[in-house]
């Protein structure tokens, strides 16, 4: 089956997302959790050991350099996860969203090897995390730390983690009701014209995603941060792009 990109974006706009039962399953079904995990952008819990790993830049972190590789890595079976919900139609759908500028990835590298990261969908000031993966200790934590810092810099207001896990809770994620989630979602999507038809597919994620991801993708940014950015003037217009800066931002209070 094929998931229409406009239908997929419209589903996110009402709090719904697709899943499958197995990597090789053909069917896709739509999920609307009654309780939603989110990462408060000023509430990321960064431990002393994780801060040290990030500051010392044990891993190299990029964005949108290998979206297909991250999705493929997330979909792979692992000893603690014999199968995943990312079937082939879902993989194709998100690769298409990436090609038209709505899906983004954060990659974590050890040398030239891709060892972790995450991907999701950006729409307005919301980022909907889909999946993250780690093939080295702390790789997924590093990816989420960088994502959270870049979301803060870009002026995002909602980082959706979908379902709560012990891993996410240890990093500061909280669980909220469906009603509270939809209220936050409405604010984050204010001004996003998904009802305007297929023309919206040509617009991409918008300025907030550009601010968040372009510097890590190697693209130069000529504009200053948005007025909502919590960064001090000591940061460049590209925002936090080193491990030291990421830790500094995550330990700031709003």
Automatic annotation (TrEMBL):
Molecular functions (GO terms): leucyl-tRNA--protein transferase activity
Keyword annotations from UniProtKB, A to Z: Acyltransferase, Cytoplasm, Transferase
Stored Gene3D superfamilies: Leucyl/phenylalanyl-tRNA-protein transferase, C-terminal domain
Catalytically driven reaction(s): N-terminal L-arginyl-[protein] + L-leucyl-tRNA(Leu) = N-terminal L-leucyl-L-arginyl-[protein] + tRNA(Leu) + H(+); L-phenylalanyl-tRNA(Phe) + an N-terminal L-alpha-aminoacyl-[protein] = an N-terminal L-phenylalanyl-L-alpha-aminoacyl-[protein] + tRNA(Phe); N-terminal L-lysyl-[protein] + L-leucyl-tRNA(Leu) = N-terminal L-leucyl-L-lysyl-[protein] + tRNA(Leu) + H(+)
Keyword Magnesium among UniProt keywords: no
Signal sequence coordinates: none
GO cellular component: cytoplasm
Enzyme Commission number(s) of this protein: 2.3.2.6
Top EC class of this enzyme: transferase
Pfam families: Leu_Phe_trans (PF03588)
Listed transmembrane segments: none
Major subcellular site: cytoplasm
Superkingdom of source: Bacteria
Alphabetized InterPro entries for the sequence: Acyl_CoA_acyltransferase, Leu/Phe-tRNA_Trfase, Leu/Phe-tRNA_Trfase_C
Localization, UniProt: Cytoplasm
An example Gene Ontology biological process: protein catabolic process
PANTHER family: LEUCYL/PHENYLALANYL-TRNA--PROTEIN TRANSFERASE, LEUCYL_PHENYLALANYL-TRNA--PROTEIN TRANSFERASE
Similarity comment: Belongs to the L/F-transferase family.
Role noted for this protein: Functions in the N-end rule pathway of protein degradation where it conjugates Leu, Phe and, less efficiently, Met from aminoacyl-tRNAs to the N-termini of proteins containing an N-terminal arginine or lysine.
Name of protein: Leucyl/phenylalanyl-tRNA--protein transferase
Organism: Sphingobium fuliginis ATCC 27551
């Amino acid at each position: 089956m094929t998931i229409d990109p406009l239908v997929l974006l419209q589903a996110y706009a009402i709090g719904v997302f697709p899943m499958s039962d197995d990597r090789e399953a053909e069917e896709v079904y739509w999920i609307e959790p009654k309780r939603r995990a989110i990462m408060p952008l000023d509430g990321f819990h960064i431990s002393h050991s994780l801060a040290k790993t990030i500051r010392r830049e044990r891993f190299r972190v990029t964005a949108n350099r290998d979206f297909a590789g991250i999705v493929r890595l997330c979909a792979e079976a692992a000893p603690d996860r014999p199968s995943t919900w990312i079937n082939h139609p879902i993989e194709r759908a998100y690769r298409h969203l990436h090609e038209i500028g709505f899906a983004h990835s954060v990659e974590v590298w050890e040398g030239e090897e891709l060892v972790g990261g995450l991907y999701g969908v950006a729409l307005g000031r919301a980022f909907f995390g889909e999946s993250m993966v780690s093939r080295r200790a702390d790789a997924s934590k590093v990816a989420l730390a960088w994502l959270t810092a870049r979301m803060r810099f870009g002026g995002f207001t909602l980082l959706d983690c979908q379902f709560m896990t012990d891993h996410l809770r240890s990093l500061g994620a909280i669980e909220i009701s469906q009603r509270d989630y939809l209220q936050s979602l409405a604010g984050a999507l204010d001004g996003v014209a998904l009802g305007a038809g297929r023309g919206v597919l040509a617009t991409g994620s918008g300025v907030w995603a550009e601010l968040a991801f372009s510097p890590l993708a190697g693209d130069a940014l000529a504009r200053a941060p948005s007025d909502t950015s919590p960064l001090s003037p000591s940061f460049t217009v590209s925002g936090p792009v080193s491990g030291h800066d990421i830790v500094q931002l995550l330990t700031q209070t709003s």
